[in-house]
Amino acid sequence: MRIEQKLWRENTGWSDLSPQVDGLMPQLLIVFGTRKYLQEEVRFEEIKGFYPGAHIFGCSTAGEICATNVFEDALAITALEFEHTRIESRQIHLSQVQNSFQAGEYLASSLTHDDLSHVLVLSDGLHVNGSELLQGLTSSLPPGIAITGGMAGDGVSFEETLVFLDAPPTPDTIAVLGFYGNHLRVGYGSMGGFDPFGPKRLITRSAANVLYEMDGRSALELYKKYLGEHAEGLPATGVFFPLSISGEEVAESLVRTILAVNEEEQSLTFGGDVPTGAYARMMKANLDRLIDGAVTAAESILSVVNNASPELAILISCFGRRSILKQRTEEEVEAVSDVFGSGCMLTGFYSYGEISPFKPGEKPEFHNQTMTITTFREV
């Protein structure tokens, strides 16, 4: 695999972030960027012009990761030339289906399944139920095919998110890449780093990702009780106090972040499902543990791939982590780089949700507030 990276910023234009590779003919461009600049048609034309014929796959973000840096108001290109690996791509607009499950089902079934080794997904981050999307994808893929990816972001605006595949970016869109062949070694891992507090409570009434009651009491009332003065800032302050979900159908605790509050219904809407009958516990941020979580996710990948350093790592970390880490945000990216070594290029973005198994060999899950890592190496 041969890789090249470029970065665009308003004050400097395009610059090379890696040495230029002689004769590079990439099959794939992974592009992450700020919504404002992705919507400028000239930027998309420039990206196409750099590498004619390559598939372009990307989304808007709440921060761009390139090398060991975190950018804002930038566009980051990672150009990939595979020696042995073939790719297929598909996308769908939400207007074409009734719900997020059907979108995932369609995308997965439309990919060729023979010789498929991995699926990478980028989704609209505001109008898609991540849990249902993942269920649709897994229902129509062969057993054992791992899925990783994330939900597009829009900084702190939450107005509109964009996804694109070989065409200018659009809202309400989901796109997938399928990777084919037996020469690609894919690693993946996901870890959080929040500390639980307060009692574990039974979810007694919910619908998909909307939580109404815990222990028979109003979910919003309970949240406000524990948040105290922070309750006035909901839903924005919810990133500091996500919910841990556990139960018989959940292999490990899943983290859910508040997206909206309904005072009339006394309900909370989360980024993923909060099933009735599961148990919920509130969590709070611990800066050192958030960074340690990113390290743990990276180390779990190396432990499975026999410590062979990957050539590329795609880091998808929740925008809530960036809001909490603030000036320490780049520490989690640098920590991952230290684990993989200087031979591994990094790209990625800050998201509104993440998709990955917790570690290799486990089933994929939809997450909030995690650092999710997908690594690639051709052999």
From TrEMBL:
Residues 219-358 form the FIST C-domain domain. SMART domains: FIST (SM00897), FIST_C (SM01204). Residues 25-218 form the FIST domain. Pfam families: FIST, FIST_C. This is Histidine kinase. InterPro entries: FIST_C, FIST_domain_N. It comes from the Bacteria.
